[in-house]
Amino acid sequence: MNFEKVIFGFFIVLSLTLNVGFFLGEYDNAAHHSVFELFAVVIVNLIATGLKLGDRSQIGAILLATSLVADFELIAAALRWTFAVHIVGTGVTPDVMASIIALAGGALVANIISVVILVSETLMSRL
Amino acid sequence: MNASQDISRVSFIVMREMRAPLMTILIVYALAILGMVFIPGIEVDGKTQYLSIFHAFYVMSYTATTIGFGEIPFAFSDAQRLWMIVCIYSGVVTWFYALGSIVHLFQNRFFLRAVEEWRFSKNVHRIVGPFYIVCGFGDTGSVLVRGMNDAGLRAIVIDQSEERIQALKLRNYKTAVPGLCANASIPRYLLEARVQDEMCKAVVCITSDEEANLKISAMVRLLNPKTGIITMSKVDDFEETLATLGGEVHIVDPFKTFARVLNASINNPAFYALNNWLVGDKGATLESYVRPPVGGWIICGYGRMGLEANRVLTKNGIKTAVIDPHSRRKEEEIDTYVIGHVNAKTLSQAGIYEAVGLLAADADDGHNLGALLNARCLNKNLFTIVRQNSHENEVAFSVANADMIMQPTLVTARKILLLLIAPLLKPFFRYLLAKEPGRKERLKQLLALLREKIGDQKPSLVTIDFTLEKSSAVIQALDAGEEVLLGHIISDPRNRNVELDLVPFVIQSCGKEVVLPPKDYKILEGDQLLFCGTATSKDLLKSSINSEYTLYYLRTGRYKPMGYFMQWYERRFSKA
Q1: Among B304, B331, B455, B575, which is 20 to 30 Å from B270 by CA?
Q2: Best residue of A1, A3, A4 to probe chain B, by most B CBs closer than 10 Å
């Protein structure tokens, strides 16, 4: 058993599942999406990215790239939320919520790709 | 000859051929447009309308090309229409003349040839990394190129026959094989195939013409003293000339190769089985021992093959009788020499009733099959070896049910392929066949090992170079002062306690060969390993010698931390 694989697998699957949790619900209804969930997704995603830094293998490079995509989109979603609530002051109106969920949806796809790569790599090399 | 020169030649031909039609079009257009501009049109609002140069060119363009949009921007006056009639007839005729010239140009043999050469040169220059030039794409060439392609070697083909090059282009190769229809003994074409490039690892001369092969070999040696030359030759005189060319020259003589195989099968059937299995003979298994019986043999056809076979048989103390239409040429050790065609009479003269074996070695497939059937009628228990000259007669030979079929083209192609993909096989075979005590037992052990590891799967011979390009992880570990053992890299990356399904044959290190290397052999940079294994094991081994993480696992049984975080964690906590 490879200890590093356990830790990395844990974080990458956790970030996918949290992402799904945040994404579920009516896409423009702010009551269905919690800001704490978004916060957790961002943090877990950043940790997963950090764990992959330094890997020189090909698969490692792809995993790092998908992780970075998810980070990028989730941070954009968090910024959108912050702007709406604190800077513009409109609050989370349905159109703001819709654009946040659109970004989170994109991050979800990147996370799914990550998990698929992780699982297939594991199946390939340690059958 | 480089690509830009070819382009300039092609464009020169185009310009020269198109000069007259282009000039004609230009003059006819100029006159027509001038006329249109100066001829007054109809009056609109009391003003006479003239065509502008732009409109005149537009009208002329669609008129001369017979598109005919009509009269614009206003209906024409009668004077304009009169001029239009002139324009239509002269313009359309000129256009057809120009189109005809283009069509004619595309049918010009020299033009097509120049384009073909330009394309070939472009494709050849697209190849990066090592490549091989194959001169001659007959039966031998097509088997060889297919084998090279499967083994991932890049080939460039030159053949004199247009038909063969067309056939080459229709093959479904994994990577493109550029082909040129040309006489390969002309240096210009060899240069076009990049013979002087340092990536040109070898030139293979297998045209059906012995003299051409010799000529090509000489040209290649002059043009590139470093590249390898592999030549098929069946004539002793030529072989002597070839051997003195200098540099790396391999001469492949299908009949001598066959003679060696025949000798091996008489003395060492296990080796014969191994050889056939390795080259991928149809239906060959490690168990298929074929042992030619000792007794009287009849050789039908005393050409090059008959001669070589006779030598081997007499050397092994076998009595031979020869049937050949030509009279005896040399004083060889032949007990009976019957002059005549193979038939019941000559066969009985040669002693068919007492014979145990028949070798049909004529250069004609019909004669060989005839001899085989004839002889079987007279003696049912014969051991038969038959020579198949043409690949087209495959079906007839497979139903003829001979004990051994010798196909010179196939023998040559396989021999060359082995020279290219497994050059270390030669010292390996030399070791196995050496007349030293214990070698036969060694061979038996090897066969048992191969049977256990590979069994019924298709064996592939693989040569691994321990260089930075081919096995980066191994070189990295060596540079870091670590030891990499042969036992490490042949373990299964999925579980290091299990070995991959392969058998290492030879390691060449610093010019010396280690045959059947032990598992604790320490790999050095620049070593070359030859092994025989299944396709899966080949892929797994190739991936583990290129991945530092897999190699670390194979060497130590532990997993190398991949990310910075785990590297830090390991440093911080694991030592404590």
Answers
A1: B304
A2: A4
- A→B interface, C-beta within 8 Å: 2-5, 7-8, 50-57, 60, 125-127
* Same-domain check for residues B457 and B559: yes
Q: Is the pLDDT of residue B169 over 60?
A: yes
**pLDDT score recorded for residue B549:** 87
**Considering B252, B287, B305, which residue would you say is the last residue of a domain?**
B252
| Residue whose C-alpha is closest to residue B124's, from B51, B71, B177, B55 | B177
Contact assignment for B563 to A2 by CB distance below 8 Å = no
Task: Please tell me which of the candidates A4, A57, A127 has its beta carbon nearest to residue B547.
Answer: A57
Indicate whether B158 and B93 sit together in one domain: no
Q: Are residues B264 and B411 in the same domain?
A: yes
Tell me the average pLDDT of chain A: 90
Q: Which of A51, A53, A56 minimises the CB distance to B548?
A: A56
Assess whether B297 and B368 both reside in one domain. Answer: yes
Collapsing DSSP to helix, strand or coil, B91 comes out as helix
Q: Dihedrals φ, ψ of B362, to 5°?
A: -75, 160
**Is the pTM higher than 0.90?**
no
Residue B303 in this model has a pLDDT that exceeds 50: yes
Q: Are B551 and B489 in contact (CB under 8 A)?
A: yes
Give the chain A residue nearest B558 (alpha carbons): A2
What b/e readout covers B471-504, taking b as 16+ CB neighbours within 10 angstroms?
bebbbebbeeeeebbbbbbbbbbeebeeebbbbb
Residue B136 falls inside a structural domain: yes
B199, B130 contact by CB (below 8 A): yes
**What whole-number percentage of chain A has pLDDT above 90?**
65
The count of domains in chain B is: 4
Cβ-defined contact of A50 to B565 (cutoff 8 Å):
yes
Q: Is B269 on the interface with A (CB under 8 A)?
A: no
Contact assignment for A55 to B562 by CB distance below 8 Å: yes
| Buried-state track B192-227, b at ≥16 Cβ within 10 A, e below 16 | bbbbebeebbbbbbbbeebebbbbbbebbbeebeeb
- At residue B405, the pLDDT reads 85
* Domain final residue pick, B364, B396, B421: B421
Across the interface, which of A51, A60, A127 has its CB nearest the CB of B565? Answer: A51
Could you tell me if B460 and B554 lie in one domain?
yes
Residues B136 and B166 in one domain: yes
Contact B566 A53 (CB under 8 A): no
Q: Is residue B427 in some structural domain?
A: no
Could you tell me if residue B431 is inside a domain?
A: no
Q: Distance, in angstroms, between A75 CA and closest chain B CA?
A: 22
Mutate to test the interface with A, among B494, B500, B559, B566 (most CBs of A within 10 A): B566
Q: Domain for residue B117, yes or no?
A: no
Write out the residue range of the structural domain in which residue B314 sits: 258-421
Does B38 have pLDDT greater than 50? yes
List of chain A residues whose C-beta atoms are within 8 Å of the C-beta of residue B549: 57
Shortest Cα distance, chain B CAs vs residue A112, angstroms? 21
CB contact under 8 A, B563 and A52: yes
- Going from the C-alpha of B546 to that of each of B446, B476, B478, B493, B537, the distances in angstroms are 28, 10, 13, 12, 14
Q: Tell me the nearest-neighbour CA distance from A66 into chain B, angstroms.
A: 16
Flag if A57 and B549 touch (Cβ within 8 Å).
yes
b (16+ CB within 10 A) / e for A65-81: ebbebbbebbebbbebb
The CATH code of the domain that includes B57 is 1.10.287.70
If asked whether residues B244 and B292 sit together in one domain, one would say no
- B80/B44 same-domain check: yes
The ipTM is 0.74
Across the interface, do B562 and A127 touch by the CB < 8 Å criterion? no
